[in-house]
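Table S4 entry, Putative flavoprotein involved in K+ transport.
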Amino acid sequence: MNENQIQHYPVVIVGGGQAGLSTSHFLQQQGIDHLVFEKHTAMHAWSTQRWDNFCLVTPNWQCALPGHSYAGNDPHGFMKKDEILDYLKGFRAKVEPPIREGVAVRRVSPRAAGGFLVSTTAGEVSADNVVVASGGYHEPIVPRMAERLPASITQIHSAQYRHAGQLPEGAVLVVGSGQSGAQIAEDLHLEGRKVFLAVGNAPRCARFYRGRDVVTWLADMGYYDMAVEQHPLREGVRDNTNHYVTGRDGGRDIDLRKFAREGMELFGVLRDYDGAGLIFDTNLAQTLDDADRTYNGINAAIDKYIAENAIDAPPPSVYEPVWQPAGERGTLDLAASGITSIVWCIGFKPDFRWLDAPVFNGAGHPQHRRGITQREGVYFIGLPWLHTWGSGRFGSVGRDAEFIVDHIATRAARGREDSAA
């Protein structure tokens, strides 16, 4: 088919999650025609890549998608998986996006006449603008050393984990202690499973401190509104691992030292397998100390804020370790350990190979300023630290979407003026 004969849209959105639908909401407000492509179903990751006991780690009041703020009776609680799905279902019903589900975008390439050709599994369309709302968590990361582990060991990625019962009897090795790893290790631990945890460099924070949720304190202190350009690490903050904490059972700290005292076995970063044993870094003590230093540092910042604003609050405190490693163990005999399964919780890597545009750095991550790239007409939305710490959360993705849509509308108006001149 001739390119001039295919359906044309001012905007095509790739991805039907909360970021894509937030963008659709504001495009509708501006009266800008558009189409959303979603290769699965809208919000599919929330239903297919979360474990059964998953819950939010941020309080419900932070759920404020455009025109769809949390309206339940527990604003300071933490929605569980089914509640999250209901909340997102309600958002989709309000937005009523023009969405094509079950249609994957295979390639987006520039057109000689301007704009982009969008090739999908259901044909082609053209667009003046493309908003990439597919997130950055595309390919689960599993190290190549996994190929050398015995075939008798069940291996899954955190995206595949649902509950302890899906794993064979025996001990479980959880690799990684970011939000998913720490919470999955806790889930298995609470189910009575013997857990070995390879601890990474993720920081931790308190759930509650001085009478309030730490998220509430940080919101009042403006942390979620700090632009990436204002952060001491600048764009480097986008590579940071999120703090581990949980909203489970009303919310609490995740204290790996407490788990160790209760029988979970902690090791440093998993580095290799030599055919008989697993090899770890001997950095566990330092890693735990670093996580606690972040924990206490955040609380100290809250102390300062309380003092400067003369806020009446319960007295301050400092976390003191409840357990210390008794020496560093750098190896673990796999057979003797009783480990029968491994859950890899070391994240995802992006895959934007379908987007033919010079907007990526050497690691394959998009380069942008608040979602706007140097390639006119190419935008990103829904990435962590797209603009602020809150960009990847229900509370701030709408703000980012509105900014991008305003940019699209301004660009379209400028184009009309140039055509009329």
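The longest helix spans residues 284-308.
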